[in-house]
């Protein structure tokens, strides 16, 4: 019997990318790509969100929001919030038991205030970034949960996994090996990827814009590298993912802005 009974995708807004400025080696145009939120239904632990998408709570500080929009061309309406998306499926936000975050970005935690009761989980490094890193966008501070929301850091995974070949540490999100986490710092500080072992699905956050960029003929521009938290780590993570993609074709890679799922 599978531990993860289902995985759903919710499109919670869009972000515009001028891909021709970010990648060389292709005939790219400006595209609006989805802001993806994923929900895994665990047989024991219930519904688990990976990121939350955007909400109007991001606009509480107009100056911070304006600064955010200068870097992230996001667009979203009330109907795009995770709570509205759940309502379309006949579900209440109370059904969310745990929230996993990939990195300290407003698109990841922008709708946390709309979820009434849950446990926030991430690597210890990312929790520290969320709580204490003043370099993070100020908009994030208005969307973080109050102190009474429990937060938990992952423990190290002690079982076997193909990920151990490529990453120094692999974390056990729920303690049963069903969801594994790895540090993918580069595009963002302490960015985290999540691997659903039973389904061979690897959620890789913003390590690449989407799966098209596994093409060997496509290269990041200097502008894109300058946008990364650490360009050297960013390129290293890209190399690791390309290697896994080549050596394990059964693994399905999904990104924060993948068009298809």
Quick summary:
The chain is of the alpha/beta class and about 260 residues long. The protein has helices at about 20, 60-70, 80-90, 105-110, 125-130, 220-225, 230-245, and strands spanning about 5-20, 25, 30-40, 45-50, 75, 95-100, 120, 150-155, 155, 170, 180-185, 190-195, 200-205, 220, 250-255.
Strand order of the largest sheet: 5-1-3-4-6-7-8
Identify low-pLDDT runs: none
The level 1 CATH classification is Alpha Beta
The number of helical segments is: 7
Task: State the end-to-end distance.
Answer: 23 Å
Description:
- With 261 residues, the protein is α/β, with parallel strands linked by helices.
- The protein has one domain: Metallo-beta-lactamase, Chain A, CATH 3.60.15.10.
- The protein is built from seven helices and 15 strands.
- It has helices at residues 19-22, 62-71, 82-88, 106-109, 124-132, 222-227, 231-247; strands spanning 4-18, 23-24, 30-42, 46-50, 73-75, 96-100, 119-122, 151-153, 155-156, 170-172, 179-183, 192-196, 201-203, 219-220, 252-254.
- Strands 5-1-3-4-6-7-8 form a seven-stranded mixed sheet.
- It is globular.
- It starts with a strand and ends in a 7-residue tail after the last strand.
- The model has no long low-confidence stretch (mean pLDDT 91).
What would the keywords be for this entry?
261 residues; 15 strands
Detail the topology: elements first, then pairings.
Layout: E1 4-18, H1 19-22, E2 23-24, E3 30-42, E4 46-50, H2 62-71, E5 73-75, H3 82-88, E6 96-100, H4 106-109, E7 119-122, H5 124-132, E8 151-153, E9 155-156, E10 170-172, E11 179-183, E12 192-196, E13 201-203, E14 219-220, H6 222-227, H7 231-247, E15 252-254
Parallel strand pairs: 4-6, 6-7, 7-8, 13-15
Antiparallel strand pairs: 1-3, 1-5, 2-14, 3-4, 9-10, 10-11, 11-12, 12-13
């Amino acid at each position: 019997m599978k531990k993860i009974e289902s995985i759903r995708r919710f499109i919670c807004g869009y972000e515009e990318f001028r891909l021709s400025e970010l990648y060389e080696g292709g005939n790219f145009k400006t595209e609006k790509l989805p802001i993806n939120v994923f929900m895994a239904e665990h047989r024991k632990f219930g519904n688990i969100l990976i990121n939350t998408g955007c909400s109007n709570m991001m606009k509480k500080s107009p100056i911070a929001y304006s600064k955010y929009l200068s870097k992230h061309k996001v667009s979203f309406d009330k109907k795009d919030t995770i709570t509205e998306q759940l309502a379309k499926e006949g579900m209440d936000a109370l059904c969310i038991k745990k929230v996993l975050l990939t990195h300290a970005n407003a698109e990841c935690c922008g709708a946390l205030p709309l979820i009434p009761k849950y446990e926030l989980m991430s690597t210890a490094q990312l929790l520290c970034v969320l709580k204490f890193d003043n370099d993070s966008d100020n908009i994030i501070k208005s969307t973080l949960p109050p102190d009474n929301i429990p937060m938990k850091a992952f423990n190290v995974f002690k079982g076997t996994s193909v990920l151990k070949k490529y990453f120094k540490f692999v974390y056990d999100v729920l303690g049963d090996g069903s969801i594994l986490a790895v540090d993918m710092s580069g595009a963002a500080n302490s960015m985290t990827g999540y691997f659903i072992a039973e389904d061979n699905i690897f959620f890789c956050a913003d390590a690449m814009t989407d799966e098209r960029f596994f093409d060997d003929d496509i290269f990041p521009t200097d502008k894109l590298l300058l946008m990364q938290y650490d360009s050297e780590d960013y390129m290293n993570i890209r190399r690791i993912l390309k290697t896994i993609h080549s050596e394990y074709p059964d693994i399905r890679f999904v990104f924060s802005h993948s068009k298809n799922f």
